[in-house]
Write a structure and sequence with these properties.
This protein is mainly beta. It has a single domain, classed as OB fold (Dihydrolipoamide Acetyltransferase, E2P) (Beta Barrel), CATH 2.40.50.140. The chain contains 1 helix and 6 strands, in the order ββββββα. A 5-stranded mixed β-barrel has the order 1-2-3-6-5. The longest helix has 4 residues. It is globular, with a radius of gyration of 13 Å. The chain starts with 7 loop residues before the first strand and ends with a helix. The C terminus is likely disordered.
């Protein structure tokens, strides 16, 4: 039996509207995620709300193991790999 696990991706916030989070990846493609009702949002390690995520913010999104369009966690702030110089170029 194969078990799927949650995946993560990094990018920049384009917009947050209700439970919809739109980001761009390092290739410049837009991705839309639906925030799970119990999604954990953090900024610099502190609890936050989806509405706190502003356009241009670097984020790491953890998606649901069965549906990659559903975000179960969003981390922003210092320490996110998307903030490294190689990804900003």
């Amino acid at each position: 039996m194969t078990t799927k696990s949650a995946t993560t991706c990094e990018g920049k916030v384009v917009s947050v509207a209700g439970d919809k989070l739109t980001t761009t990846c390092s290739q410049g493609k837009e991705h839309c995620h639906t925030m799970a009702q119990d999604a954990k949002v953090t900024c610099d390690g502190m609890a936050a709300k989806a509405a706190d995520l502003k356009a241009g913010t670097d984020v790491r999104i953890t998606t649901h193991k069965d549906d990659m369009t559903v975000a179960t966690a969003v981390e922003s702030g210092k320490g996110i790999p998307a903030m490294t110089a190689a990804n900003k170029a």
